[in-house]
Amino acid sequence: MSEVVCTCSGCVDVDVDVVALDQYKAVDFPRRLRSRAASGVQLMTTRNLKSGAVMRRTQTISTAKGTAAVWAIESERPGNTGICHDPYARRFTSTVFYLLIRLFAGYGERRTHGALTFIVCRSRYFDDYLKACLASGMSQLVILGAGLDSRTYRDPLQGVVKIFEVDHPATQASKIKRVKKVLGTIPTNVVYVPIDFDEETLDKLLAYGFDRSLKTLFIWEGVTYYLNWKAVDATLAWLGTNAAPSSTIIFDYEYAFASTRADRRHYLYSVLSCLDGERRAFCIKSGQIEDLLAGRGVTQVLDVSADQLKRLYCMGPNQDRTVAQKYAIVHAEIGRHQVQVST
Description:
By secondary structure, this protein is an alpha/beta fold. It is about 45% helix and about 15% strand. The strands form 2 sheets. The chain has a 7-stranded mixed β-sheet with strand order 4-3-2-5-6-9-8. It has a two-stranded antiparallel ribbon with strand order 1-7.
């Protein structure tokens, strides 16, 4: 069994929720930028000082808005030069997050050695993998921790397969309001399943109509970082016993070497964590993801590194962009005939 590193029980030496503003002020970036963003960060960190369920709601919603803002900015690159394209991201995120991330994007990208580029490459890779799965006969889609992901509402998914969006109840309620505002209605092939991954199991999917006999793709984008090991393990075990043969899963994860005390003083953790308010809790040593998945009925594991993402998507006007090395993507099959994206 692979060694999993969990940082959710005392390993995190900084209480991001309580001293977020202190971390923010300690980051080494131009003072004029610090003052311009201070009011927005104060607004969000003040919310994070609340306790219990209120804090959790704020954290998950803020993470979703921050990620959507990154997608929106990439989608607005001139001349269709963006690595990913999300036509709804700008309308799904909030103006505060959009402006703050736009303000710090260039500086943050340099300081994190390509974390934002990883986010957009990840989105593009997930899109390409989804298309490959559709071509191979996938008939059901489950998006775990859907956030403000808009794949459900754009081609080629519109009306094609049954879709389950699984997310924290507060984040999902906020998203449903935004979808109704932007689209006017909820697509008939979409089912929303409210689940708190740290407290509930995916058995709730069955009550909402999930068909265990259908070939399914499970998308788990940008989620595992914030779950404890028990929640990650429970999710993988559930898939191993409930997904139909030839189903697939794709998710991203963080390498254990990146989850260090020094890393938590880094720009991404210090500033962007002020924006999303969520702690990193799960990571795994490089090269051990296949062992982790093998014990849970998952086969044909393909690990996709930052270097592979760069070769795939950082070409032409994007050739000088750097993809953060501390993250990776993995996809695997439950059964036979793995779907592949050329790397």
